[in-house]
């Protein structure tokens, strides 16, 4: 027997000798050829073998316990574990991986993992699997995966090939993590960023628009206020001219000065109305526009009854707006329609209503003098008039006020018309108003 084997068996022999002594006195070792010596050796070897078997049973039990603990850790790990071959066929899968795909383990083993990959991600998985067997580095990818019931979820795969003696083997191990919540959070952040960019762009556009409007506003105010000021100054100088005035001239000059002063007062009052419309507090409530129309019509009743205006209205919606603001809009539009149907023997005004997926569109149509569509861009500007003040009174602020109020909701205004055939002024109010101020 080799020396190292003898050394390993020495403790067992000592244990065997001790066990023999437990059963009574041990005879002295007989001569080698003595049958008693052979019997003694056989008894010792038998006991040695029993001890070896006992140690093997303990070792086997420890291995089984370790294997059970490993399988528990493997199966109930918080992430899915899979083993693939080079073709992506599933060789092993833990319970978490089976739950992720909603497939029992016995129906999962032997199937290609590609079956559980969304078609849009399959080329990505194929390339990922190929690269894993080409080099020992761990590969990471994000894929859309399919459960057995057809539902989708985002999975992060970490794949590494098994290396045998420094060379890639025939299998790889993959860890799969459900990252659907993280992807949704990323998408939400991207959506919020995009929304923020849109809001910044909208506000920037609004600032540019207001800046341009302020520039036009300043220019128009200067032009419109200069005319009555020049008249007042001119007639004041004439009154102060030495040499006296002819009979009646002073009265006419004073009349012109008074008219110019009234014109300035009217312009200043219109500017104040426009300013109030720009600064008025908007309280969003459910506003029935039919009721708004009735309230405005009551205020305009003297003009309706005297001129015999025929007013018809389609059913109007309930909108998210401020009641006072909507009354101001309807008042200005109806005032405009009444003014420009003055020469009509049978004036007609019609209120139109239309609903789109995102807006309520209200139109005020009249059979008045109309306008040339080439000049429609001037209609909603401050102090912009397509007809002279001698023909039709007004300051040119009414429609600008309508535009200003509606734009504060994120709405829009426009007009259509034809000379001598009337006009229609439209207001589009968003179903979900946004105050851009």
Automatic annotation (TrEMBL):
Residue ranges constituting the PAS domain according to the UniProt record: 66-136
Protein's recorded name: histidine kinase
Domain (PAC) ranges: 139-191
Taxonomic placement: Bacteria, Thermotogati, Deinococcota, Deinococci, Deinococcales
InterPro entries documented for this protein: BphY/WalK/GraS-like, HATPase_C_sf, HATPase_dom, His_kinase_dom, HisK_dim/P_dom, HisK_dim/P_sf, PAS, PAS-assoc_C
Histidine kinase domain sequence ranges: 220-433
Biased composition (Basic and acidic residues): 1-24
Coiled-coil regions listed in the entry: 39-69, 182-213
UniProt keyword Signal, yes or no: no
SUPFAM superfamilies: ATPase domain of HSP90 chaperone/DNA topoisomerase II/histidine kinase, Homodimeric domain of signal transducing histidine kinase, PYP-like sensor domain (PAS domain)
Location of the region described as Disordered in the Swiss-Prot/TrEMBL record: 1-33
Transmembrane annotation, as ranges: none
Catalytic activity: ATP + protein L-histidine = ADP + protein N-phospho-L-histidine
EC number: 2.7.13.3
Key words of the record: Coiled coil, Kinase, Membrane, Phosphoprotein, Transferase
């Amino acid at each position: 027997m080799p020396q190292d084997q003898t050394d390993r068996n020495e403790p067992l022999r000592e244990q065997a000798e001790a066990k023999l002594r437990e059963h009574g006195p041990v005879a002295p070792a007989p001569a080698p050829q003595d049958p008693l010596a052979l019997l003694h050796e056989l008894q010792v070897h038998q006991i040695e073998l029993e001890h070896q078997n006992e140690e093997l049973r303990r070792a086997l039990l420890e291995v089984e316990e370790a294997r059970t603990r490993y399988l528990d850790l493997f199966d109930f790990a918080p992430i899915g574990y899979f083993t693939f071959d080079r073709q992506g066929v599933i060789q092993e899968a833990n319970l978490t991986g089976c739950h992720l795909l909603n497939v029992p383990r016995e129906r999962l083993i032997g199937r290609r993992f590609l079956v559980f990959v969304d078609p849009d991600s399959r080329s990505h998985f194929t390339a990922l699997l190929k690269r894993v067997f080409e080099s020992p580095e761990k590969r990471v990818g994000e894929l859309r995966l399919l459960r057995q019931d057809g539902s989708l979820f985002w999975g992060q795969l970490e794949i590494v090939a098994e290396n045998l003696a420094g060379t890639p083997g025939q299998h790889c191990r993959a860890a799969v993590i459900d990252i659907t919540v993280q992807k949704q959070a990323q998408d939400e952040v991207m959506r919020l960023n995009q929304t923020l960019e849109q809001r910044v762009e909208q506000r920037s556009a609004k600032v540019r628009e207001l800046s341009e409007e302020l520039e036009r506003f300043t220019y128009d105010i200067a032009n419109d206020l200069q005319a009555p000021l020049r008249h007042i100054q001119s007639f004041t100088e004439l009154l102060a001219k030495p040499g006296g005035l002819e009979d009646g001239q002073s009265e006419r000059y004073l009349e012109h000065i008074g008219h110019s002063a009234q014109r300035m007062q009217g312009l200043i009052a219109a500017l104040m109305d426009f300013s109030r419309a720009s600064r008025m507090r908007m309280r969003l409530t459910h506003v029935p526009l039919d009721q708004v129309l009735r309230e405005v019509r009551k205020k305009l009743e003297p003009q309706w009854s005297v001129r015999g205006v025929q007013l018809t209205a389609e059913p109007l919606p309930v909108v998210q707006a401020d009641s006072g603001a909507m009354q101001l809009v309807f008042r200005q539009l109806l005032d405009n329609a009444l003014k420009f149907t003055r020469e009509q023997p049978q004036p007609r005004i019609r209120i139109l209503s239309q609903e789109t997926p995102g807006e309520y569109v209200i139109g005020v149509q009249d059979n008045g003098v109309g306008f040339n569509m080439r000049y429609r861009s001037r209609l909603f500007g401050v102090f912009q008039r397509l007809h002279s003040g001698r023909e039709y009174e007004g300051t040119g602020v009414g429609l600008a006020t309508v535009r200003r109020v509606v734009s504060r909701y994120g709405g829009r205004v426009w007009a259509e018309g034809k000379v001598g055939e009337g006009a229609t002024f439209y207001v589009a109010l968003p179903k979900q108003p946004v105050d851009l101020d």
